[in-house]
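Methods: example folding runs. The two proteins below were folded one after another, and each record is reproduced exactly as written to the output file, sequence line first and structure-token line second.
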Amino acid sequence: VRRFVFVSSSSVYGVSEADRVTEDHPLRPLTDYSKYKALCEPIVLAAHAPDFVATVLRPATVCGFSTRMRFDLSVDILTFHAINKRTITVFGGTQTRPNIHIDDITDLYVDILDERPELIGGAIFNAGYQNHTLARLAEIVKEVVEHELPDRAPIAIVTTRANDNRSYRVDSEKIARILGFRPRRTIEDAVRDLCRAFRAGRFPYALDDKRYYNVSLMKELAAV
């Protein structure tokens, strides 16, 4: 193996009031997932060498249609509820979360395999796009779903207490400056793609199929 790209997560930042969370921001992971992502980063970077080019990426929350769909990520689950329940439940709402369209992040994964080693070796890059509060994400989802699937309108937004306080605004200037990576798809594009996938019947059992929820799926597999 001559090149190793470790996909960490922007959730390693935990909670931050900073206007711009750059790659040198302190890591404050709040979950086991983000804790172990953060612990793996220095292990990977310590192995960087001329014949083993190691890079760490910290993607924002991925959104949009995938053949291995997940409905346990913020934009996707809000869209799922809007379409199937005609109600969007927002937990908290003031937390700011960065997002990135799945097509943009997968393009980055492919492109970085061909980047010059001197640009990416031993480096850490944020990879995000739009930073919005959960309340604003719910508004975007409502607007797009009601436009794409007018039979689902009106869609209600209900706010309740949050047990996940992660909040941060990821700055992705470094990856744009060094690698020229700039996302081209928006959250609206992601919601629109999901609406069209539901309309095409791509998720016939989405309401009760654990395959779309990582934690539920792992618990089920562990019990087998």
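Second run, written to the same file directly after the first:
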Amino acid sequence: MTLRHISPDTDPATVSSIDARLAQLAQQHEVTIRLAIESGSRAWGFPSPDSDYDCRFIFVRPLHQYLSPWQRRDVIETPLESVFDIDGWELGKALKLMLKGNAVVLEWLQSPIVYAGDAGFRDAFLDLARRHSNRTLIARHYLHLGMRQRKIYFGDGKTVALKKMFYALRPAAALRWLRLHPDAAIAPMHFPPLMAQCDPPAEVTDITADLLARKAITRELGVTLLPAAIGRFIDHEFALAEAVFEQPRAPSPSERAHQEIDTFFRDTVLS
């Protein structure tokens, strides 16, 4: 089944431009795009009217290129053009990063905005991820990402560009979700259900809902004092994550994981 899910309020001309760019990249690089989605703030659920379109895709090369001693690059990158930011990863790269705890590809597989893709491919990849992803490594990914974003955007602890607050709040919410769901490894990508399922304090919920509503209709929320409840929530979750997930060494993937991923990779390349 072919995947495509575009928000009805997205400008049709913008979608057509993304479709054309993807088709051009597939032809230029002689690849098959198996999944193309929106990442970034639009897919996370907190866009501004002027947010870029961060299209990301997973591609597969033809068999003869994999059999060559001169391997091609495992990424396809394009320069940022106007509001379009379009890049892709080769399937093998995406699979290896998934095993290393890189949550980016896990978010791509859950994106609510899909430009093109094969449902069987996406579902099989997501099933592998759910069974073989390492929750400790994923948590470390969100912890290091969140701490870096906190330092960049409001390191002084006093003022913050409110539209940037979400870049630290989302990793904090993901860490809380993982802590409250000890049998799961993949937190929801979309911010509203992520917040709902991690059960934050009521004050955090209220402030976040207000900022989301304002961010959706204005280009600039301005710079102001960091809301105390948000700051406490972020710092509390980061501190807990350091204690819960900062283990000396995460276990290596099992032989079964490698075998199943090998099979998925070969079946996809040969299909």
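Comment on the second run: The CA atoms of residues 50 and 206 lie 24 Å apart.
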